[in-house]
Amino acid sequence: MISDELLAAYLEGNTTEEETLRVLRALEGDELLQELMVTAERVDAALGEGGRSYSLIPMTRMAAESEGNLCDVQCEEYVLRRRGIPADAEALEQAARDNRWLRGQGTPLHSVGRLLERSGLSVVRSYEASEEMLRQALDAGDDAIVVVNSRKLAASQAECSESDPNHAVVVVAYDRVAQRVSLYDPASDDGTDSYPAGRFLEAWDDSCRYLVRVAEKGGAYNPQPIDTGDIELTEDLLELREAIAENAHDVWAAARIREGWSYGPVRDDARKRHPDLVPYADLPDGEKEYDRRMAFDTIKLVKKLGFDMVKHSDSELYRLMMGRLHRRERVSHCPHCGAPVLMGQAYCGDCGRKVEWKEWM
């Protein structure tokens, strides 16, 4: 028996040598698992990828390297206290759990900083941030939360080969002369530690240099959208782009009409008239291109974040296989929320709470 997490990692090529051998041994005597692998290959072929050649943004990876998986909550509490904002540790943890920013496995990278937003601070998230961006944030008096690979950060495991962005820390200072970085580390007994800049950067690389910059509201805003230039779309997805663009225009137009707007040859905010309140086909080419670009970038971002778009006929294959797995009693339901959970899964993917199989098998 192998877990769904291990199977997914194997399909994505993210298993260690030992884990790969476990999957291969399981495949030898399990016809259903063999069929599932064939199905996965067919879906990949349908997507026209044949294996990704682009780097993924680890948006859904978990920051969890401290007691109770609370490293992000503790970092955000630290930032609040530094800024003189009252912070109650238990209340922050509860708010994070209530809003599902903190889950059973930790805090997803895309949820880092949500408690600070809730406290009225301005939060800007950036992937593929540079050293200079980090230094500029510190020079401006902003706080900087980053996610690192804790093993690569530790001196005893600096040669770690695993790519695992699993730990939120706060960058306190960056000494350009000594080339050292000081961090508030919630998993450290001392609280604040100093590391060689090179080792810190190597550990930071595994989160695609994820930077959460925190400041007071009203400051300068420099957008840093995720670079999706390495993503190429198949013909099917290019067709989907046009459908998304047209629907986005219809959504915008319907909202404006509900607000009392109507067509007018020239935009007039006082009278609520807008020249773009026409069918998508009647829009000027420039306006169509704006909608297409939005759709194009959205589809590419979805793929950059590690998600795939599969046609119904292809996804039906997966549903069929999962139904057969269910009949083999490899799927049960979470005792807390009732969501389907595969045997061996440590946490419910829906509510995030720990699954104790021995209590409800």
What labels would you give this structure?
361 residues, alpha+beta, six-stranded antiparallel sheet, two-stranded antiparallel ribbon, 12 strands
Uncertain regions: pLDDT < 50 for 5+ in a row?
Answer: 47-51, 324-329
- Largest sheet data: 6 strands, antiparallel
Trace the largest sheet across and list its strands: 3-8-4-5-6-7
Shape: globular
Q: Which structural category fits the helices and strands?
A: alpha+beta
Percent in strands:
5-15%
Overall pLDDT confidence: 82
Give structural notes.
The protein has 361 residues and is of the alpha+beta class. The chain has 13 helices and 12 strands. β6 and β7 (192-196) form a beta hairpin. α3 (31-47) packs antiparallel against α12 and α10 (235-258) packs across α11 (285-304).
